[in-house]
Write a structure and sequence with these properties.
Layout (H helix, E strand, L loop, with lengths): L1 H45 L3 H9 L2 H14 L7 H36 L9 H22 L4 H18 L1 H16 L7 E4 L4 E7 L3 E5 L5 E5 H5 L3 E3 L7 E10 L4 H18 L10 E8 L2 E10 L5 H19 L5
Antiparallel strand pairs: 1-2, 1-5, 2-3, 3-4, 6-8, 7-8
Helix pairs in contact: 1-2, 1-3, 2-4, 3-4, 4-5, 9-10
């Protein structure tokens, strides 16, 4: 008879808990609808970023908090055995810490993105910074959860420190990529959207900088994935820093018996005409042409053009060489 009564109390307590959980989640959803829309409107009306970030971070979290409050109000622990009572309390703590951490990581991520996007910010827009912020929050939340569950953190940190030394020896490449990525980020060597050229030959627009690699969009539209450790050991030229104007040297050779003065004059005239016709060539730059060597059956010359951006140099060079060949043919100047 006592077992039947205990079972009935247990079922009744769990039923009330389930009802309280559903009611709490419903209230959270209602608050979600009513409050978050006002937060969005408040932020948009005043040009503030944090209300929208808070609204986005609370999406789905308010329902969890409402459910947790409902379960706490129902408090079915009196009907549970001592063992289940302990597990119930631990589960509640874990879910509570998880929901708060989820909210904080979302909020920190949104605020970090907003701060990076602001004109006055000197922070890079690479995802490595955002991932580090999230990682730190989750680590702190993990430690807090362990402390609330009664786990001694001190011995755990000591064990993790000893284990970390051994693990780091086996993860040297990963750690090297991570710290090189941090160095690139903090020193502002390059950021997403900028055009870079590596001494190893890769070049393109930086798509993203992660904890492991840098992704470049090449001229053909492909994505080149370069480990950060490789970039740390090579020369990187950032063509999106400083002046956008890039001086392009275009070499060509003519026969040795050509009138070099006429060759230089024609080459400069073609360069100026190309600047007027091609949007890639800067008209404010005064082109020049020089004879750089005489060897064998030809004379080597170099024309210098002002290009609006490094990534457009091949298009500009193609336009100039085509126009130069046609003009040389009309002038009777033979290429070597």
């Amino acid at each position: 008879m006592i077992d039947v009564i205990a079972t009935t109390e247990w079922v009744s307590a769990l039923s009330w808990t389930a009802i309280a959980l559903a009611i709490g989640a419903g209230v959270g959803a209602l608050v979600h609808v009513l409050v978050l829309r006002r937060l969005h409107r408040y932020g948009e009306g005043r040009g503030l970023r944090w209300p929208g970030a808070a609204a986005a971070a609370l999406r789905g979290v308010l329902e969890m908090w409402g459910a947790l409050v409902g379960v706490a109000v129902a408090d079915p622990r009196d009907a549970l055995s001592q063992t289940w009572d302990v597990w119930f309390e631990r589960a509640w703590i874990v879910v509570a810490v998880f929901s708060i951490t989820l909210f904080l990581t979302r909020l920190a991520g949104a605020l970090t993105k907003a701060l990076v996007a602001s004109d006055k910010s000197r922070l890079p827009s690479a995802s490595i910074l955002l991932n580090i912020v999230r990682f730190v929050i989750w680590v702190i939340a993990f430690m807090v959860a362990l402390n609330l569950l009664g786990v001694e953190i001190g011995p755990l940190l000591t064990a993790l420190g000893v284990t970390g030394i051994a693990v780091s020896l086996g993860l040297q490449d990963i750690l090297r990529n991570l710290f090189t990525g941090l160095q690139i980020t903090l020193t502002h060597q390059y950021e997403p959207g900028q055009f870079v050229h590596l001494q190893s030959g890769e070049e393109g627009e930086v798509v993203d900088l992660t904890w492991r690699e840098t992704r470049l969009r090449t001229a053909t539209g492909d994505i080149a994935v370069v480990p950060n450790s490789v970039i740390g050991n090579t020369v990187v030229t950032n063509y999106s820093r400083g002046e956008e104007l890039y001086v392009l040297d275009v070499p060509f050779r003519v026969v040795i018996d050509a009138d070099l003065d006429r060759v230089v004059d024609v080459a400069v005239e073609v360069a100026r005409a190309t600047a007027e016709q091609s949007p890639e060539v800067d008209t404010s730059f005064s082109p020049t042409c020089d004879v750089v060597s005489l060897a064998g059956a030809g004379a080597s010359c170099v024309t210098r053009l002002g290009i609006k951006h490094y990534r457009r140099r091949r298009i500009a060079q193609d336009a100039y060489l085509r126009a130069l060949q046609q003009r040389f043919q009309a002038e009777g100047i033979a290429l070597a």
